[in-house]
Amino acid sequence: MRPSLRPVCIAGTGACAPKQVLSNAELAQRVDTDDAWIVSRTGIRERRVAGPGETCSELGAGAAKHALEMAGLDAHQVDCIVVATITPDTVFPSTAAYIQRLLGCDRTAGFDLSAACSGFVYGLTVASSLVAAGTYDNVLLVGAEVMTSITDPLDRNTCILFGDGAGACLLRPAAKGEPSEILHSILRVECDDQVLVVPAGGSNLPASHDTVEARQHYMKMQGRATFRFAVTSFKSLFEETLEAAGITQERLRWIVPHQVNQRIIEAAAKRTGFPTERIAVNLDRFGNTSAAGIPMCLDELVREGKLERGDHVLFVAFGAGLTWGSVLVRW
User: Fold this and answer.
1) Where are the domains positioned within the chain?
2) Can you tell me the distance from the alpha carbon of 84 to that of 64, in angstroms, rounded to the nearest whole number?
C-alpha cells in the first residue's frame, strides 16, 4: 500500500542579482552587435554580471535569506538545501555546502543538482518530494548561476544572452485547509551533447593547455536547434501537464517559463494560444540566468502582489542535456 503524501506549498521566495549591469551598448564595444540587433532577436536589454569574488553561493545565499524571511523561518530551521546550478563555486564541495556555511544552518542536509536551464523544475520536483514523503519539513531550494563564468565573451551567439543571478524558495507541508499544493510535474532527458555543451573540464576531456587555448571551457550552442527544441518542448509540456492535472488553460493564472529568449517565448505562446500578457518575463533586465531565471521571476510576481493563494501557476523549462520539464503549482 502506497503511503499517503503530504501536500506541499511554497512558503517564501527570494532573489538576488549582482549590482553590476552590462548593457547591450557595452557589449557592442566587445563584439560585432548593437542594441537594436540584440533586442530584436532576444528581447534582452541588459543583464547582471558578477564581479570579482562574487560567487554562485553568495548569490544563492542572498536569495535564500529573502525566502526564509518571507516564510518566517530562520536558518536553523532548514532541514535540507537543494541547489540547482551548472556554475558551482567548485566541483566539490557542493554549492549547497557553501550556502550552508553562509547561512549558518545547523544539522542540515545539502546537495547540488545539475540540469542546466531545467534545473529549477528538476529541483522543485525533488525538493517537494522530500517534503511530501515526510523526509524533511523545511527544504530550501536555490537556483543560482554565474553564467558569465562559462560564457565566451568573444562569442556573439552566447555572450549577448546570459547573465548572473539567483532565486530561491522555501518548501514546507501545506497547513490544513491551505489551498496551496505542488500538483504535477514532468521531467525529461534525452542526450544530445552537440546543441548545448561545455566540451572540456570533465573526465571526458580534462583541463589542459590545449583545451584552454581552444576555448573549450566555454559554452557552445547551436542557436537554431536550440530555438526549435525550446518551442516544441514548451508546447508539449503545456499540453501534457494540463491534461494530466485535469485543468483547462483558462484556469491557469500564470506561466513562468525559463527566461530563454523573447522570440522563443512568443513563438511558443502562439502555438499554445495562451495569452502572452499572462506569461511572466524579466529577461529584458536579467538575460538568461539558466536555473535562476524561473525563481527570480516568480519572486517578482509574489512581491508585486500578482499571485493570490489558489492561483494555478505553471513552470516550464528546457535546457542542455537535453533536458525539459514542468511543474504545476496551486499557489
Assistant:
1) 8-173, 181-330
2) 13
Cell, residue 316: 516550464
**Bridge pairing between strands 181-192 and 164-173:** unpaired
Locate 66 and state its grid cell: 529573502
Of 83, 44, 85, 121, which Cα lies nearest the Cα of 317?
121
Average pLDDT for the chain: 96
Which residues are marked as active site?
Answer: 117, 258, 288
pLDDT bucket at 251, cuts 50 / 70 / 90: very high
Look at residue 86 in the predicted model and tell me its pLDDT.
98
Right CATH number for 8-173 from 3.30.70.360, 3.40.50.720, 3.40.47.10, 3.30.365.10? Answer: 3.40.47.10
The widest CA-to-CA distance across the chain, in whole angstroms, is 64
In this structure, what DSSP letter does residue 36 have? Answer: H
56-74: burial string, b at 16+ Cβ within 10 Å, e else: bbbbbbbbbbbbbebbebe
The grid coordinates of residue 21 equal 549591469
Distance CA 217, CA 142 (A): 24
**CATH numeric code, 181-330:** 3.40.47.10
pLDDT at 1: 39
Tell whether pTM > 0.85.
yes
Q: Is the dihedral of CA 321, 324, 329, 331 positive or negative?
A: positive
* Cell representation of residue 250: 483558462
CA distance 295 to 304: 14
User: Residue with C-alpha cell 536555473?
Assistant: 291
